[in-house]
């Protein structure tokens, strides 16, 4: 099962920050001070305590994630999210991975399979989002075609709004596309 009970402080942070989201994955990291949470909208990496660089509630939209991987070494293992612009390189398990906002240090190597399953979930979620096809709007000149074009644009804006509400688009992406479509009216 990929939903585990977390340290009391981490559970409290989740309760305060997740209101209308479904949790699919909730895994504890090293010493209960780190956790990976996958909801229907985003991936969260929560950390608390001095060892992890302080308390942090890091959230990543699926659309911004480029990879998810578990790295296993001689001394231990860690989970890492790849994000656009980040160069994923081997990390020192105890001085770097535990302090980075996109990594979770695992309790031991036995946890690696659970976190690999989480990687698969994240990658499948990203793939589903990439299947959303852009809407093509054709220009026309007749009055009936102009009305159809107007309805197409309004329908497109409504679909974009739904994608924004479901966190498939950022606010900036939504506003930019909406303004572009409104300029075509």
Task: Describe the protein in words.
The protein has helices at residues 8-17, 93-97, 112-130, 143-165, 171-183, and strands at 23-28, 34-39, 42-47, 56-61, 65-72, 77-83, 103-105. With 185 residues, it is an alpha+beta fold. It has 2 domains: 8-130, PH-domain like (Roll); 143-179. Helix 4 (143-165) runs antiparallel to helix 5 (171-183). The chain is elongated, with a radius of gyration of 20 Å. The N and C termini lie far apart (51 Å). The relative contact order is 0.12. The mean pLDDT is 80. It comes from Neobacillus pocheonensis. This is PH domain-containing protein.
Give the mean pLDDT: 80
Which strand-content bin applies to the residues? 15-25%
Q: List low-confidence stretches.
A: none
Helical content class: 25-40%
Number of domains: 2
The strand count comes to: 7
Contiguous helical run count: 5
- Morphology call: elongated
Listing every helix as H and every strand as E from the N terminus to the C terminus, the arrangement reads HEEEEEEHEHHH
CATH topology of the largest domain: PH-domain like
What gyration radius follows from the Cα positions, in whole Å?
A: 20 Å
Q: Would you state the CATH class of the largest domain?
A: Mainly Beta
The assigned structural class equals alpha+beta
Based on the coordinates given, report the CATH architecture of the largest domain. Answer: Roll
Strand order, main sheet: write it out: 1-2-3-4
Distance between the termini: 51 Å
| Main beta sheet strand tally, sense and closure | 4 strands, antiparallel
């Amino acid at each position: 099962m990929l939903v585990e009970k977390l340290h009391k402080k981490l559970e409290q942070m989740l309760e305060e920050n997740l209101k209308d989201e479904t949790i699919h994955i909730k895994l504890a990291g090293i010493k209960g001070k780190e956790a990976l949470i996958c909801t229907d909208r985003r991936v969260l990496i929560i950390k608390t305590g001095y060892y992890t660089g302080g308390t942090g509630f890091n959230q990543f939209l699926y659309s911004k994630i480029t990879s998810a991987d578990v790295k296993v070494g001689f001394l231990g293992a860690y989970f890492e999210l790849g994000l656009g612009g980040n160069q994923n390189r081997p990390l020192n398990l105890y001085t770097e991975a535990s302090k980075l906002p996109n990594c979770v240090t695992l309790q031991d190597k036995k946890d690696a399979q659970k976190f690999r399953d989480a990687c698969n979930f994240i990658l499948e979620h990203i793939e589903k989002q990439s299947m959303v096809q852009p809407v093509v709007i054709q220009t026309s000149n007749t009055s009936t075609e102009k009305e159809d074009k107007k309805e197409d644009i309004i329908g497109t804006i409504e679909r974009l709004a739904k994608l924004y509400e479901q966190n498939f688009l950022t606010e900036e992406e939504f506003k930019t596309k909406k303004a572009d479509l409104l300029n075509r009216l």
